[in-house]
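Here is one such protein, fold included:

. . .
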Amino acid sequence: MQKSTNRVLAVAGICVVAAAAGYFGAGLSSGSASGGAGGPQGSFLDDIKQRGELRVGVAVAPPMTVQGSDGSLGGPNLIPLQDLADQLGVELKPVAAEWKNIVAGLQADRYDFAANLDYTVERSLAIQFTDPVYEYQGVYVVKADSPHTTAEQIRSDGGSVVTAQGSAPEKAVQATGLTVMPVDNYSNAISAVQAGRVIAEFTDLPTAEAQTLADPGLKIVVPDPAIYSASAAYGIPADTDARSLQIVNIAIERARESGQLTRAYSDVNYREIDNLGDLVKK
């Protein structure tokens, strides 16, 4: 039975931090209380306030994270962090990243958050994760005239499948025994499908929807049973203190409950997996 994607999110234009700390004006750190792995409580967010910008690493995966024609980075996945930045009184600064190096960039302090990042054990050994921002299933994208309508047909074909190098779906599809061709990003991945160099792309559902909406010559194949299901969160440094993490998680919770992200997803035509309609390969 296909796993249904959970409801998508929302963000409130309200004070998300007050509920956690009752504070935005003075510092978040309080006395000499230890923050566990990360030093004084609130120090992670204090550093962001002092710097005057909240930096977020963004690997492009439309519609959740996108790059505009002017090169600017954005997308619905950044809305909770934009709200948090507003409450902290700092600027949100997206920083370009790729899936193959997004965790390394976080470890190297190129940014404070890594956007749209799936929970994996491997990653959690190197960084921390916030609460999930949304959940999704991994799917295939094929050409509309492909003979393949099921994941089993794709597996039995023997041809290559493309995916973004370093992405969580990459390891999941490798485990199926398929020949996998990793590329730098999902734009190059779908180009390989369109050019006929591979039989399918394996990607996350939001990216697959964006690709098939942009090109009617592409369709989605939903694996049944699921090959990969994930919770997408924000990656944060391994030594982030507990109080700062709690405040970030409150921002995410407010985002999931308020309705703003639900409207943002509707604006980009995002659909749940059991409501894909004509995007599915018949």
